Amino acid sequence: MTLGRLQRLNEELEELRYCSKQGIPILIEGKRDEEALQELGIHGKFVKVSGSSSNLSEIADSVARSSSMVIILTDFDRKGNQLAKRLRRELESLGCYPNLQIRRRIMGMTRKYIKDIQSLPKYIQRLEMEISPYHFQTSIY
């Protein structure tokens, strides 16, 4: 069970890595989300939607002008769900294709365990420890 969840999660992260290498912007909530994704080897164009001086319409307009496709990867809590819906509507109205599938799949696999993107690295480490607890311990010799 744990191994299967870890494999599926790694497949989603690999898809994110591929998309980011293709230059597809990833909409996230904040700096900690960006740091977590970078820790997982995902580098690219991150657009922070919370705490920005721009409103969502301005952010969507800017992203839509630079790319016809965007990945929405907001947190899995109520606020993140509302942001994802609003961003999707804004982007679609501008003729941009917002990808919410990766977010939905990751959320489906982690819903019981984490509520935000910044928790992904620790969650993955926990899964890896469950699978191979001795592999990740440091030697005392």
UniProtKB/TrEMBL annotation:
Query: Under the GO molecular function aspect, what terms does this record hold?
Result: metal ion binding
Q: Report domain Toprim positions.
A: 23-106
Q: Metal-binding among the record's keywords?
A: yes
Q: Which domain of life is it from?
A: Archaea
Q: Which residues form a coiled coil?
A: none
Q: Which UniProt keywords apply?
A: Magnesium, Metal-binding
Cited InterPro entries: TOPRIM_dom, TOPRIM_RNase_M5-like, UPF0292
Name any one Pfam family assigned in the record: Toprim
Q: Which HAMAP family match?
A: UPF0292
UniProt similarity note: Belongs to the UPF0292 family.
Report the protein name in the record. UPF0292 protein DPC56_03395
* Species for this entry: Methanothermobacter tenebrarum
